[in-house]
Design brief:
The chain has a four-stranded mixed β-sheet with strand order 1-2-3-4, with helices on one face. Strands 5-6-9 form a three-stranded antiparallel β-sheet. It has a two-stranded antiparallel ribbon with strand order 7-8. The protein has four domains: 2-9 and 119-276, HUPs (Rossmann fold); 287-368, Orthogonal Bundle (Glutamyl-tRNA Synthetase, domain 2); 372-431, no CATH class; 448-539, Arc Repressor Mutant, subunit A (Orthogonal Bundle). The longest helix is centred in the N-terminal third of the chain and has 16 residues, at 46-61. The chain is elongated and about 110 Å long. The chain is built from 24 helices and 15 strands. The protein has 543 residues and is of the alpha/beta class. The chain binds one RNA strand of 75 nucleotides through helix 6, strand 8, helix 9, strand 13 and helix 13.
RNA sequence: AGUCUAUUCGUCUAGAGGUUAGGACAAUAGAUUUUCGAUCUAUAAACAGCGGUUCGAAUCCGCUAUAGACUACCA
């Protein structure tokens, strides 16, 4: 008791005061309260989004609360502006919080939502643990701890402060503590781990039953700066903020005994845990964890910069999370992914391998079912931030762009050739004189003279108002006149009878108009470009 | 070194003792089309290994292997 007062002289509030300040939430039966707790390191990664999506879906599907808590207990790792990076990234991906940290403070009644601002709260509970004789001050310096660890490794012992290594600081007398503190010696608060053969059993929402030995280590509760470690902060925060479900990476499974024990000590019910699999990547022949250094796609900013639509990223992660999402998507091709009934039971417990091919395919599907207007708006808002040149062009030629985007869109089987915003702009670049360039070679079968001939006659008979069928009839006639095969099959059968086939002729046109062989239907392109631009581009090929 | 966790086609996975082990992406082949990275059809492709329980095992139990996590005053 006296020890507690020596360590926490300023703490006057009690645990009860805290319970009253953060009362139970008044929510309907079955509502989930979830959160994400990113660290402001300046790097927001896919795993953050992965967990955020799970937490967000579970809360919002059940009419619960989803909040953002900033876990900034490690001041050394904190990066300037990182909090707004997190908030921005989540907003970009349409992950909406009901409460928590916002760019200029807090929103909600369970704050503060930045852990460093909660120091006083933690101290109330830390003090109580000391009073109960479950925690004690430890005056070991970081170097001393390191030395112990090194020795333990050498002797093949389990590293950490426990048993005989904890003895000295555990058994300090009150007077000794007083003297050390008045000497200004730094201390951390450690938990008194118990060494016995108990095992703890937890029912994990993803893994099912998890069983392991109880914690025996004297882990750190409060660091020397008075800020808690993750373990302590997690227990206090998720209790006071009344989280019902904790969704976090599986790297936390190992520290579950610590958390469970703390919950038990305080007499609280622990939330339901859901430990998610780590995202992996193929490296040569083996799987490995995605790493910050080698895998740009780990950073959320990668998707923003590449212009991978947020819908595609969501759907991709949803297919990893709930494999039945894919079937659902086939049956509901146009429904928003938000309507999908996400289920925690369907989550896989093994590490999902991150596959960009799949993401590409999903992206194409997602964009192909959007309306031309929608694509236009999304392209525009992406350009606004990442490609100013196209932002100007898109704004200037809006009408033309929408016509172009309409090509092959809307039917039962829409064209799937747009993948990312960045790639889409490249694909669409030929619609603007400012970015148009000839990329492919004219077919070998068509020499300079023939090209000349062809484009001249094409322009002579060209009528912008022809419908697609009439237009194509004219192309066929020209093809015949030039000694080319009207049907590619005829040419295939008897190549010696022709100079080439209609494929070569249409490719000439395609290249003149779009600069490439791979482009949408010529007639459609012509009508998106307009009469004037079409003629201009063709004229360049006549001398 | 200890403690956990995981392991089904190349990849994501379905599968809760009896299935020709299913689907999707990628791959390959063919077809179609005025081009195509579009479309259609088809093909190939998997239960990590070894034991055990059982009439019967991808499924239950052991062991081994492999991969990963944790054992920080980092989260």
């Amino acid at each position: 008791m006296e020890l507690a007062n020596i360590l926490f002289p300023k703490v006057t509030l009690t645990m009860n005061d805290m319970e009253e300040r953060y009362p139970k939430r008044n929510l309907p039966q079955g509502a989930f309260v979830t959160r994400i707790g990113p660290s402001p390191t300046g790097f927001v990664h896919l795993g953050n989004l992965y967990n955020a999506i799970i937490a967000e879906r579970l809360a919002h599907q059940t009419g619960g609360v989803f909040y953002l808590r900033i876990e900034d207990t490690d001041s050394k790792r904190e990066v300037e502006g990182a909090v707004s990076t997190i908030i921005d990234a989540m907003a970009y991906f349409d992950v909406n919080f009901d409460e928590g940290a916002v760019s200029d403070g807090d929103n909600g009644n369970y704050g503060p939502y930045r852990q460093r601002q909660r120091a006083e709260i933690y101290h109330v509970f830390a003090k109580w643990l000391v009073e109960q004789g479950k925690a004690y001050p430890c005056f070991l310096t970081e170097d001393e701890v390191q030395k112990i660890r090194d020795e333990q490794f050498e002797n093949k012992e389990n590293p950490g402060i426990y048993g005989k290594y904890a003895l000295k600081n555990r058994s300090l007398t009150l007077d000794e503590v007083k003297i050390k503190i008045s000497n200004g010696e730094k201390w951390v608060l450690r938990y008194k781990g118990e060494e016995n053969n108990d095992r703890i059993v937890v029912d994990d929402a993803i893994h099912g039953k998890l069983e392991m030995p109880r914690n025996y280590q004297d882990f750190v509760i409060l660091k020397s700066d008075g800020i808690p470690t993750y373990h302590f902060a997690h227990v206090i925060d998720d209790h006071l903020m009344r989280s019902t479900h904790v969704i976090r990476g599986e790297e936390w499974i190992s520290s579950l005994p610590i958390h469970i024990e703390l919950f038990k000590d305080f007499g609280w019910e622990h939330p339901i845990y859901a430990h998610t699999a780590t995202l992996m990547k193929m490296d040569g022949a083996s799987k490995r964890k995605l790493s910050k250094r080698h895998d740009p796609e780990l950073a959320l900013s990668y998707y923003q910069e590449e212009g991978i639509s947020k819908e595609a990223v969501w759907e991709f992660l949803l297919t990893l999370l709930n494999s039945n999402f894919e079937d659902w998507r086939v049956e509901n091709p146009k429904t928003s992914y938000k309507e999908f009934p996400f289920s925690i039971d369907k989550m896989s417990s093994s590490g999902a391998l991150f596959n960009l091919d799949k993401l590409r395919d999903i992206s194409k599907n997602v964009i192909s079912v959007m309306s031309a207007n929608e694509v236009y708006e999304k392209l525009l808002s992406w350009c606004k931030r990442y490609d100013e040149k196209y932002f100007v062009l898109l704004t200037k030629y809006k009408e033309r762009m929408i016509k172009a985007l309409n090509i092959g869109r809307g039917g039962e089987k829409p064209r799937r050739d747009l993948e990312t915003w960045k790639q889409a702009l490249e694909f669409l670049s030929f619609y603007f004189d400012e970015t148009f360039k000839i990329e492919d070679e004219m077919p070998l079968e068509c020499d300079k003279e023939l090209q000349n001939n062809f484009f001249k006659s094409y322009l002579e008979t060209f009528n912008f108002d022809d419908d697609a069928i009439t237009w194509f009839e004219k192309v066929k006639e020209l093809t015949r006149k030039l000694g080319f095969a009207e049907k590619p099959k005829d040419y295939k059968k008897n190549p010696e009878n022709f100079k080439g086939s209609i494929v070569h002729i249409t490719n000439m046109l395609r290249i003149a108009l779009t600069g490439r062989v791979n482009a949408p239907d010529i007639w459609e392109v012509t009508h998106a470009l307009g009469e004037e631009m079409t003629k201009e581009r063709l004229k360049k090929w006549c001398e």
